[in-house]
Amino acid sequence: MTVGVVFLLLTSSVNAQQVSLSISPPILELVIKPGKSIMVAYRVGNLGDPTILTTKILPFEPKDNLGNIRIKKEFDGPVRFGLDNADLQLEQPFFLKTGDSQQLLLRIRLPEGAPEGDYYYTLLAETVPPKSSEGIGSAQARVDIGSNILITVTESGSVEVKPKIALFSTLGGLILDRDLKIYDSFDKIPLTLIVENKGKNMIKPEGEITLKGNFGEEIKYDIIPKNILSMSQRLVEATPSAQFEKPVSLTLSGFFVGLYRLSTKLTFGENSPTVFASTSFLALPFKLIVGLIVVIIITTFVIRKFSTQEDED
Question: What string of DSSP letters covers 105-164?
Answer without folding.
Answer: EEEEE--TTPPSEEEEEEEEEEE-PPB-TTSPBPSPPP-EEEEEEEEEE-SSS-----EE
